[in-house]
Write a structure and sequence with these properties.
Blueprint (H helix, E strand, L loop, with lengths): L2 H11 L1 H33 L7 E5 L3 H9 L9 E2 L1 H8 L3 E13 L2 E6 L2 H7 L6 E2 L7 E4 L1 H7 L6 E3 L1 E2 L4 H11 L4 H12 L1 E7 L11 E3 L3 H6 L7 E2 L1 E6 L2 H11 L5 E5 H44 L1 H9 L4 H42 L10 H27 L9
Parallel strand pairs: 4-10, 6-9
Antiparallel strand pairs: 1-12, 1-13, 2-11, 3-4, 3-8, 3-12, 5-9, 6-10, 7-9
Length: 410
């Protein structure tokens, strides 16, 4: 009987214990793979989330909140700023491009973003729309690819937005619950409901948070609320500086004046990534515990196997099999169980990433790549095999040292 067939027979002989060991290894590997893919997706998504706009101007408040709302469409805006801030940025010779943005409404949970159309050409170059044409008049919209796919929107469809960052049905239920206390909010919702948007285009897959937003003209918020020219404000100004020195000068000029702040986008994103890294360190501790438990599981499984097959090993020695052969039988058994768990874990990890990708993108605009193979995968595989080998050495060496006749002693 070949070594592989003998090893396979021994593993199948202890099906339940072998299955538990395989499951322990698979769960550990799957958890590490999912963590690796998620961390890489967060880092990649954060890096390309703001494009060439190294500076953003908005209302005073949290820098991180301003950047996340402006570029990643997460959370609430910090407030509004005077329209004059846009003109001041455009008049600065150190600014290559500056675009106004207005936010605060949603359509079925997806943010409606008023943004000058030049933003798309500056950020994405000559990328064409997947379908239709760019918006040009108040009420016309271009829809992100994920929004169009999720809601089944197509060119020519019309819809009404809702105030705030939650779905319209949630606002309606909240108003019904609180009654007259929210009369003003009810009037605002009525104004939103009477304003109709028309889909004129569908964006291609951009693989950025812009896939999960509805874009329209900057003046949509003014039109919905019927604001007079002197009352018109914007949420943020996205600035592409001509140089880093220019960005610094503009920041110094605007930051802290009249309730306005100017924020380095990369710095705010770095703060978010640092927070993610701290969370990853905590998860790394949990991962280390899982790895330790998986190694113990393999060790206990092989100790049990060595105890069960003492007489079998003795018979093999009497039949002329070498000590090395006996050592290999137990070592190969540990490696077979580990390799099976490793393969299952890799499949489970990528399957988990596939199942979570839509939820992660819908909530945070981060696109996890479920089929992506990273260099860390090789380290995961090498680590799993190493742990399996080390766990096998103890029981295998014990059997290796014993005399053939001593193996038959009770």
């Amino acid at each position: 009987m070949s070594l592989f067939r003998l090893t396979l027979r021994n593993v199948l002989h202890r099906r339940f214990l072998s299955l538990l060991t395989v499951c322990a290894v698979a769960v550990t590997v799957a958890f590490i793979v999912l963590l690796t893919l998620s961390r890489e997706s967060v880092e990649q998504g954060a890096k390309k989330g703001y494009g060439p706009f190294d500076l953003v101007i908005g209302a005073a408040g949290s820098e991180t909140q301003l950047v996340l709302n402006t570029f990643y469409h997460i959370g609430a805006p910090t407030g509004n700023i005077p329209l004059a801030a846009l003109e001041q940025a455009r008049q600065d010779q150190s600014v290559a491009e500056a675009y106004a943005m207005t936010t605060g409404d949603n359509y079925k949970g997806f943010p409606i973003v008023g943004l000058e159309s030049g933003y798309f050409f500056t950020r994405y170059g000559g990328a064409r729309l997947h379908e239709g044409s760019m918006y040009a008049h108040t009420g016309e919209t271009v829809v992100g690819s994920y929004v169009a796919k999720s809601l089944g929107l197509k060119v020519g469809d019309t819809f009404s937005g809702a105030h705030g960052l939650v779905q319209e049905e949630d606002l309606e239920s909240a108003e019904a619950e609180h009654g007259e206390e929210h009369g003003e909010e009810h009037d605002a919702e009525h104004a939103h409901g009477s304003f109709r948007y028309t889909v004129t285009g569908i964006l291609p897959e951009l693989h950025t948070p812009d896939d999960r937003a509805v874009f329209t003209t900057v003046d949509y918020a003014w039109a919905v609320h019927g604001l007079a020219p002197e009352d018109r404000e914007i949420t943020a100004v996205l600035v592409k500086p001509a140089s880093l020195l220019g960005a610094h000068n503009l920041k110094q000029e605007l930051d802290g004046s009249n309730g306005v702040q100017a924020v380095y986008t990369s710095k705010a994103v770095s703060d978010v990534l640092n927070a993610v890294d701290q969370g990853s360190r905590l998860l790394s501790v949990l991962t280390a515990i899982c790895v330790l438990l998986a190694g113990i599981s393999i060790l206990l499984s092989l100790i049990a196997a060595a105890g069960e097959r003492t007489k079998d090993v003795g018979l093999l020695r009497l039949l002329g099999k070498s000590r090395g052969y006996v050592w290999l039988t137990l070592t190969c058994e540990g490696l077979l169980v580990t390799a099976t768990g490793l393969i299952a874990g890799l499949l489970l990890g990528h399957l988990g990433a596939y199942l979570l990708k839509d939820a992660l993108f819908a909530q945070a605009g981060i696109q996890i790549q479920p089929y992506h193979w990273t260099p860390e995968h090789w380290l995961i595989a090498l680590g799993a095999i190493t742990i399996g080998l080390l766990s096998s050495l103890g029981p295998a060496f014990r059997m290796y040292r014993m005399h053939p006749l001593a193996l038959f002693k009770s």
